[in-house]
Amino acid sequence: MRIAIVTESFLPSLNGVTTSVCRVLDCLRARGHEAVVVAPAPAPREYNGFPVQAITRVPVRQFQVGLPTPEIESMLSAFSPDVVHVASPFFLGARGLVAARNLDIPVLAIYQTDMAAYVLQHGGAAGRPAARATWRYLRWVHSLADLNLAPSSAALTDLRRNGITRTGLWGRGVDTALFHPGWRDDAGCRALRRTLAPRGETIVGYVGRLAPEKEVDRLTPLVDLPGVKVAVTGDGPSRQALQALLPGATFLGRREGDDLARAYAVCDVFVHTGTHETFGQTLQEAAATGLPVVAPRRGGPIDLVDHGRTGLLFDPDDPTDLTRHVASLTTAEDAWERRAVMGEEACVRVQGRSWQSLVDGLIAHYADLTRLGTAA
């Protein structure tokens, strides 16, 4: 099968959209399919043997936004795909959807970024009407797709509540070959732990982009928990402000590959802070490493954390609830035992969520669309 992937984000930018697109491409290569990627510049010329077509872009709030130019249609026409896969469509992706419709190519859209919530958070006084306008725009964008896939039950509900039809559920895989509890025996991981917790403190970790929408400032009261060290992995526009806000935390910066796996494995508890996640890939990676996860009872984490069994879900509207849950896993008398039981169960739960199995399901959607043709 020939698949064209039009994505709002790609390498060298690292985020959830980029990661999922790369994993899909890896699995398509393993299954012997052909693919091409259309992405904002700057981008590599190829990825895993697949050509990458870079589109002119403009920077917007630390992101590279691809311009919706007519050349996308020419690129798709030249490749002649069986199906077009559009990742997190907004500007570039919207043009990809229009192009696919013009060329009468079946097209699938992956909803991944809660742009309306982002607009609401950054829009000031105009945030609410701007968020409503964003949903109206997204309703038009997704009306162009033959199938719209959401990563979690909460995201799927959002789509349907806002009038988006032809929907389905498609989660995300996790690389259990990279993220696993065995890293705790790694010499580099042990050395990092001695640096972060020289007196044997309990390490509470966060991994992710450091930006306002991630709400990392929620970690502030955790720094004062007795016997706890906070480790923050990642980078972004909020890093400097967060370092000033969290002087007792250690910032490990952006990490990839084995170094990222060590950053998870050095932790005893993983905390996710954002309340606008459509999924929460870092929660799965932490679980695969054998960590109990503490996350908001809102959005994607609701599907990923079994409260009391694989981690804890806190009430994001209660400013004390996160600290209370983290304390129960760090300073309580039975904290070590609770962490061990939850971490083991979390690791077991993610073992069946390989990227290959998830992408096999995606390929089945591709095949269905090619048989049915485009929607009327």
Automatic annotation (TrEMBL):
<dbReference type="InterPro" id="IPR001296">
    <property type="entry name" value="Glyco_trans_1"/>
</dbReference>
<dbReference type="Pfam" id="PF13439">
    <property type="entry name" value="Glyco_transf_4"/>
</dbReference>
<dbReference type="Pfam" id="PF00534">
    <property type="entry name" value="Glycos_transf_1"/>
</dbReference>
<dbReference type="InterPro" id="IPR050194">
    <property type="entry name" value="Glycosyltransferase_grp1"/>
</dbReference>
<dbReference type="InterPro" id="IPR028098">
    <property type="entry name" value="Glyco_trans_4-like_N"/>
</dbReference>
<protein>
    <recommendedName>
        <fullName>D-inositol 3-phosphate glycosyltransferase</fullName>
    </recommendedName>
</protein>
<feature type="domain" description="Glycosyltransferase subfamily 4-like N-terminal">
    <location>
        <begin position="15"/>
        <end position="177"/>
    </location>
</feature>
<keyword id="KW-0328">Glycosyltransferase</keyword>
<feature type="domain" description="Glycosyl transferase family 1">
    <location>
        <begin position="196"/>
        <end position="346"/>
    </location>
</feature>
<keyword id="KW-0808">Transferase</keyword>
